[in-house]
Structure formats: structure tokens, C-alpha cells
Amino acid sequence: MTAVSTVAIAGSGVAGLAAAIQLAKAGVEVEVFEAEPELSERGSGISLQGNALRVFDALGVWEQAQAAGFAFEGLTLRAPGPGAPVVAELPDVKTGGPDYPAGMGMPRAALAGILLTHAQSVGVRVRFGARVTGADATATAVAVAVNDEPAGRFDLLIGADGLHSTVRRLIGITTEPQPTGMGIWRAFVSRPTEVVRSELYYGGPMYIAGYTPTGEDSMYAFLVGTAQDRFSVSDRHAAQLMSEESQAYHGPWESIRADLAAGAHVNYTWFTQHIVAEPWNRGRVVVIGDAAHSCPPTIAQGAAQGLEDAAVLAELLIDRDAVDQQLWDAFHARRLPRARAVVEASVQLGQWQIDGDREADAGGLIFGIAQQMAQPA
Hints:
Distance between the termini: 23 Å
Strand content: 25-35%
CATH topology of the largest domain: FAD/NAD(P)-binding domain
CATH architecture of the largest domain: 3-Layer(bba) Sandwich
CATH superfamily of the largest domain: FAD/NAD(P)-binding domain
CATH class of the largest domain: Alpha Beta
Number of strands: 20
Number of domains: 2
Largest sheet: 8 strands, mixed
Helix content: 25-40%
Low-confidence stretches: none
Radius of gyration: 21 Å
Number of helices: 10
């Protein structure tokens, strides 16, 4: 017997669909409400560490994800300037254990499609253009409103609706993402054959320049600098600005700039950070993933943490027979310290760069977090 028989989920991102898949596989009736009119085909790439890949395997999508992405081991550090000299080749901790690669890059749209298709195949109902606008909870159920109309009563509502979560606001949680002072350009471009793992450049005019392979013919490139108001520039101007700000970086960046000139799509966002203090639930409504916590991608653990939230919550709902305080205590004990460690370390790494702190032990911090993530959530 499961603790729930019907669950509503706000948001069709990785956390929402992961929770939906696991619950539906256990016989729970799951309905996902997504505010956007359709699954987005835009976006760049995503970096996934081994602990995220371990969750994919539990979901039943590891083979599809592996085929759609680009697995790699290790990290290359380069310096700016002519020739883009390699400074170091670093090993990665296998946070998913020996059965999975240390890391993998994927196109975001490919990952979204894989999760959606699998969710529907196990019986999840997904409604697009459906924004959760109300959540009236009692001790035993939640009456959910969608687009300001009644959508049914459920045993639980999971808010996996992202950084600017409506569900978070509906249940009275006032924590909001805060800018960290950094902004990032991202572009989806072709992969030069010599790029076989993530590579980062430190120094020069930007805090970080880098790229991650996402497939045989693709990768995503990024530049991290001081946060600026770049949100209203045209696509063409955005590509021009990213190209100009990458001039100090060479090697594969020559190919990246050629793709930018040819019209590669570019997006710009600010880094944010937040973590909702315990509890993440208010009765039978709970937030997970980016709705509960966000951080700069300096450790590439954002998606992994959302996937772990979903996996742990689903496990507890499946293995227990009541949605009670014991369930929520177990959930928070397993998720809050782990997510907080990732958020705080990710923010600290960025702050050291903003401060120009050359004495900071960035490598030690990254290794320490990786060792924590190597332990199952």
C-alpha cells in the first residue's frame, strides 16, 4: 500500500517528471500540469553528474539518456590566450558509483523529450497550458485549481514548477531566488572533434569560459561574467556580444565563434541562489527541485539535486502507508542538508571568483562535495 493514490504535480521539468514516473510505476494516479503551451524545443545543454545518471537508471531511462548524450570522464582546465594552453587534466569523482560515467552532457530538449515520453508510457497524464493557480489543502486532500478552474482533489500536490514557483507562493513560503552577481551566456553549437569532456578556462575578462559536449555533433558553450541587463537584446545582438566577450579565449572557441556568427541561438540568465528552510511542505503540498532550492551551476549539481528530491519523495510515498509527520521528517532529513551543502558550496565558489580570492581552496571544496554526492541520497 502506498501513502497516496492520486497526486498532482505542477511543472514538467526534470524533478516533476521524475517524481511522476516513479509514482506512476507504483500504481499511483498522477496528473502533471505544465503552464507552458508545449514542451520547449529551445535551450542549450545540461551537465549531469553520476548521481543524476543513477536516478535515470532507477526511472528506466538510462539507456535512452546515454544514447542521446555524451558521456565523459575528467575535466580539462585551460588558460586564456593564444593556443589555449592546457593547465591541468583533472579526474572526476564518480558520484553515481562505478556503473556510470563521471559526467554526461545532453541537449536539454532531448532530456525533456525522453522524460515526457517515458512518463506518458507509464500512465502519467500531462496537460500543457495548465497553470496551477490554487491549492486548498485539508488534512486529507488538496483541491487543486488550474487556470482558475477546479481541476480535482488529490492526496498530494507536488510543486516542481521552477525558480519562480507559483505553488511555493500559494502555500505561503516567502523565500525567493536572489541574484549572486554573476550572469551567464549559453549557446548550443557544434562540437569540434577534439572536445571530449568539459573544459574550463579561468582568467581573462570573464570569470569562467567553458563548454561541455552534448552529443556526437553538439556541445554547449558558456561565458560567466558580472551580471548585466542583457535580457532585451535581439538574438543577433546576443550572439555578437557573446562572440566579443569570448575574444580572449582560443582553441575550440574559434569554432564556437564561427557558429555564433552563423546564427547559433544564445540565451542569457543571471545566477541565483536560494534554499527554502525546513519544512518544504505545508500539509499535503510540497515543493521540490528549483522551487525549493537553486544555485549557480559551478558544481553542476542543480538538476541532480532536483532528481534526488523526486526520487526520495517518491520512495517514501511508495514505501509508507500515510502522509504524516514521520514521512516529512524522513524526507527533510535526507534532502535538506544535502541540498543546502550544494547551494552553499556553489555560491561560495562564485563568490571567491567575484572577490578574486586566489588563496581559496576551490578544488578542495569541489572534491568534498563530490564525495558527499557519491553517497546515495
